Amino acid sequence: MENPGYCSGSFDGLHHPSDDDDDDMVDIAGATLDFSSTDDVPPLNRDFAAGMNGNGPAKLVDPLEDPVPGLGTYEDFNTIDWVREKSKDRDRHREITKKSRQSTVALLHSVSDAFSGWLLMLLVGLMSGALAGGIDIAAHWLTDMKDGVCLIGFWFNHEHCCWTSNETTFQERDRCPQWQSWGELITGTSEGAFAYIMNYLMYIFWALLFSFLAVTLVRAFAPYACGSGIPEIKTILSGFIIRGYLGKWTLIIKTITLVLAVSSGLSLGKEGPLVHVACCCANILCHLFTKYRKNEAKRREVLSAAAAVGVSVAFGAPIGGVLFSLEEVSYYFPLKTLWRSFFAALVAAFTLRSINPFGNSRLVLFYVEFHAPWHLVELAPFVLLGIFGGLWGALFIKANIAWCRIRKSTRLGHYPVTEVLVVAALTALLAYPNSYTRMSGAELISELFNDCSLLDSSQLCGYKQVSNSLADRPAGEGLYTALWQLALALIFKMMITVITFGMKVPSGLFIPSMAVGAIAGRLLGVGMEQLAYYNHDWLIFKGWCSPGADCITPGLYAMVGAAACLGGVTRMTVSLVVIMFELTGGLEYIVPLMAATMTSKWVADAFGREGIYEAHIRLNGYPFLEPKEEFEHSSLAVDVMRPRRSDPALAVLTQEGMTVGEVETLVESTHYSGFPVVVSQESQRLVGFVLRRDLLISIGQNHILICVSHFNVNPQLPSDNAPEAPPPLRLRGIMDLSPFTVTDHTPMDITVDIFRKLGLRQCLVTHNGRLLGIITKKDILKHMAQIANRDPDSILFN
Amino acid sequence: MENPGYCSGSFDGLHHPSDDDDDDMVDIAGATLDFSSTDDVPPLNRDFAAGMNGNGPAKLVDPLEDPVPGLGTYEDFNTIDWVREKSKDRDRHREITKKSRQSTVALLHSVSDAFSGWLLMLLVGLMSGALAGGIDIAAHWLTDMKDGVCLIGFWFNHEHCCWTSNETTFQERDRCPQWQSWGELITGTSEGAFAYIMNYLMYIFWALLFSFLAVTLVRAFAPYACGSGIPEIKTILSGFIIRGYLGKWTLIIKTITLVLAVSSGLSLGKEGPLVHVACCCANILCHLFTKYRKNEAKRREVLSAAAAVGVSVAFGAPIGGVLFSLEEVSYYFPLKTLWRSFFAALVAAFTLRSINPFGNSRLVLFYVEFHAPWHLVELAPFVLLGIFGGLWGALFIKANIAWCRIRKSTRLGHYPVTEVLVVAALTALLAYPNSYTRMSGAELISELFNDCSLLDSSQLCGYKQVSNSLADRPAGEGLYTALWQLALALIFKMMITVITFGMKVPSGLFIPSMAVGAIAGRLLGVGMEQLAYYNHDWLIFKGWCSPGADCITPGLYAMVGAAACLGGVTRMTVSLVVIMFELTGGLEYIVPLMAATMTSKWVADAFGREGIYEAHIRLNGYPFLEPKEEFEHSSLAVDVMRPRRSDPALAVLTQEGMTVGEVETLVESTHYSGFPVVVSQESQRLVGFVLRRDLLISIGQNHILICVSHFNVNPQLPSDNAPEAPPPLRLRGIMDLSPFTVTDHTPMDITVDIFRKLGLRQCLVTHNGRLLGIITKKDILKHMAQIANRDPDSILFN
């Protein structure tokens, strides 16, 4: 099944969940239901029910085993029931604790169960760290391959190739005879127009080859491997099921194609996809432990930690990674997960460091070291960068979503391979002549963050040498050239990223967004520096920027700009500042970063409150209930529930007086995924809730006469009489006797809060104790879409 | 009213909430109720109700104003209703947004309302930072006062006194003629036994004076100022009301007495109380903004941020502070609060730094810089330190709680002043002869964390000089003396802290716990160092610790030990590691810290799952529903609800057929804090819930005939008839038409989850749509106490 997501572009060959599977999505004149809780009936009660049946002596139902296969599982593209999953886990844990008092083996089992979470975290950290290291090394090698080849062995990258050479000096570390550019190899000389053209052509050739391989592999083996994966992971963590999205094929193909896509020179990064890779690792490793394999809620705790691991290895920022998971990705993040995420993030960071893919023992992606402090006056340009970042973020989201809509609705979506090849060719063609676009995004950012030392030979440090100090210097020829190139690079990056993000290759947004911001920041920084140099006597510079002092650090501006743009696109706040703090390691620069990030978020929010990930979630119609946004409207539960006033009455099962035939007819004649059970049609007093899926499984399994009159279970209560005939065991087990209810007068803001906090899928609505209707997560999302004047039918899945 | 908390020791003069105020805590043969939601009825509905009454045209109820004074407020020692408070705020916000479209003034009001949160955070940060700076400076001065006096001005502390002197060299910075010890001043010489005895006596005199002043001020003006305050703040943040606990008197007295208590040399720290001080600042500043003054839930968001600010200024660790608030203190911590806490924590940290109380421009309390990396083999001693920390933590909690119980139950509690004086005298008497106990806790930790440089003249660095390098050296005479003194100091600190924490003076636990761990760690560190020095050839040292290498850093062991002990006592995990990380600034040392903290937590948890703060909450019987612990038992809602089977039936109001007289009789004859409203006594179908307090206020306010038959409100529903006579407005407004319900079969683990996540105070229990009973937060806490074999009546408040 292909990914119905944005990066598929079109729905060619897509098995839409509702195409042939009416149970999955039912929406005819009534409530659209998910499959709901069955195991909420606690063991105590189940035991009691089991003991009541006439088939034999009381039988303990073991929560460690599934009594009926399929019961209590979910279909693809459906939402899980958090309450039931957590309750299931608690039952399991209770059972293990109870058993552990009985034998030593059981005690050991209980201990190993308690530590399995930590072991799993360790494995996730090790595997993700190792994979990230591998990806770094491979991408580095393939990126260099576009330029040339190492004569002493093609498997060396440029840097390693020259390490082995003795002829290089420290100054010219990256030039050595062993490394030959393609032009040199073909024409025999590294000079001249012909060599340049050959290099250019080879650059385009490799870019096309890599991107073709990437898109073909993705299409052939793992359509889910495309894109950054963060929107889908957010949706999955909120409780949605997308089978195969975190599977082994996705992992393998995403790892390989990520390397290819990054090396092809397309304007994309590997940071977002690394989160997907880490989540795949976690999901696969979950299969080793029953506790996590069988419980969707527990598995999502591990996935939350894996998201932290992904950012930890992407930026070498474990604390920032944990906060990223907490702030941006996770839905349910208990404190236990916080602690475990932190552990896994550290393990991954140290694994990556011991692999040492950058060859410098550095944990972080961009190591930054500034010498001069910043001055309060500089807050003005930092806020300016924040405004730029916010505007760019808002513009980028609008443009990218518009482009993705075009891809979805026009024939463009039918040619994903052609699209990738055209964009790759365009990128290579335009990028090669400009050295700042030719280098990889990470290299570019690294260079822009860099503070110019005295010996620095790069173009960006092409100042006129006036004295032998690090003080502010006038810009020289080299720097002016660099500024022009940077300005062109800025425009190019801004345009190309819009059409690149969303193509059918793995593509992250962090690096391209940061690159745009870093370029803008560096330009402003150099501008400020020159302004200060030539106008020491201006009021704003007086007192802190005297002649011969080192007052403005353009690298800091680049960093602030990068944070602002990334903040504008993703709307990250704390985690972004902490990631940047971990890059510099000093609290000094937090205030500029914070000022820019805050401004950026406010400016961008003024144009639309959604970040790029939420926008893509909405574009794809995933059933995601945003935990950050407040529900502002003043409607009541009765306004949102189904059936509406004009609809036919709610289809219910009654506790008494219904035959098996009637039940079967009801199930067959309707498409609802679940049915409330009431005392009688007249009273409409609610007893419980039963799922269509479980009902069908039970009928199929048992082939026995169903006597619905014995749905009623608990004879301890004085108001009810104990059943007289032996009740059918299975149907008792599947009825949820504790369905969630709200009254019809409950304001929707409270109802939405309940859905979010408890992770519900549906909730019954009552009035004066009588069943009135039902609200599902999808009803809420549709209602919210309606309020926001969007198409309520854009919510696709359950 | 005095604090009924642990640091009061006894309940002398205590106004117990249930002494004269039966509404507050009622527990007679039925449910114990809090005051519940009234404003949950949304404006739409209220407008409708208002429009229905015959007194005039439809009147809009403005949620920005309280219609009836007292309605919707809480009494002291009661629990707030989070759902209602948040709903109130959303109504308010909705109203402002609606109005902002009408005029420019309203628009400006809306904008200023949106930014008031940020302004408040800025003010909290500035005020807390300034106060923390003041406390640091004053405590430093008073601590030095115990030793001697500055001749050129008594207001200089030792360091400042000698700064003004020109005669000091860098080496002997802390010796100058201007600074005279008391012995020197009195006897004329700094040498000799007489001078020593005079110093000793003066030391004890000042200690007694300071501690006497501290305890007297606390008793006379602000009994809530004692203790660390963190248990109470945790309880308040979970939704409890303790009036005056965060008031201006508490702030003033706590600030003053904190300085006195710290200076008196008692074994206590200022870090915990700083959290209380920051929360007081936040609470007082909340009064400037209607949004926060009038809403208990919004105010708690600010208090959560203030807790982060407290730790930020205590350790100079803003990120650690935010995580501390998230992990340890807060109950409701939305993402918005995360972001604002971070901002406030940063502002506070920078305010403190610009005050520069330590005179070194350092943000952090202990600046640490290590040179040598650690080796994997060293994880074994680090884990050992973790075990020590865990054992000490568990032991400390047990001993301290036992001691507090003795204080509570015996006559000891009646003499808090004497107790403080005796402990202060004992501390001074025993501490003075040993230089490591004589210095303040923070100084001691700083010295223990310190890595010995070559020129270091302190006793702890009394190694034999064998070469001119930083390599491992054999221990010399000085070091051996230091080790003995440290061992004695360890025993002394362990004993004295147990009886100090809980006295009627402000007292924090962070520094004493860390001191114990740092001493143990340094001892182990020096031991390891000497072992490695003399046994380079042992298998475990081979390969990484050759002769002449600097392989073991005793300061790192001290730091790991400090983290382990603090972790054992408080059970902090991530936040502790991050605070320590912010002290060193390097990711390098996170792994040792993590290993020790994890071990410490596991070991301590094996002896009891509660940290010291939870233990004190339980000791004081606060109604605190621990969010971290899972509810393990398999009971059902029906087992916990009131009335029990043997109790008389639940007192309910009926929708029809009740006269005002009957209502008044019911209210007067029972003591319940609220009454469910049902359709009729026969059907017991639930309509809503009304609070005793609101009922009484409404009856008193209106002096009109109450026609309870018109409780029924919504004529839109087909099943009910519209009321015919004009209904009384007030009673409509006070009935909560959307009370929370669960069915009798709902497992308690799910019910507890609902209470925690939604912040409920009570929940009605139904069976087949009929009202069966009620569960309050207190019922749950009592049930949990019963399961844990504790006295259920230890839960004191509502």
UniProtKB/TrEMBL annotation, chains A, B:
It is found in: Endosome membrane; Membrane. Keywords: CBS domain, Chloride, Endosome, Ion transport, Membrane, Transmembrane, Transmembrane helix, Transport. It is a multi-pass membrane protein. Pfam families: CBS, Voltage_CLC. SUPFAM superfamilies: CBS-domain pair, Clc chloride channel. Residues 641-705, 735-792 form the CBS domain. Residues 1-23 are annotated as: Disordered. The chain crosses the membrane at residues 118-139, 200-222, 242-262, 274-290, 302-326, 379-401, 413-432, 482-502, 509-528, 556-581. One of its GO terms (cellular component) is early endosome. GO terms for molecular function: voltage-gated chloride channel activity. Belongs to the chloride channel (TC 2.A.49) family. This is Chloride channel protein. It comes from Dicentrarchus labrax.
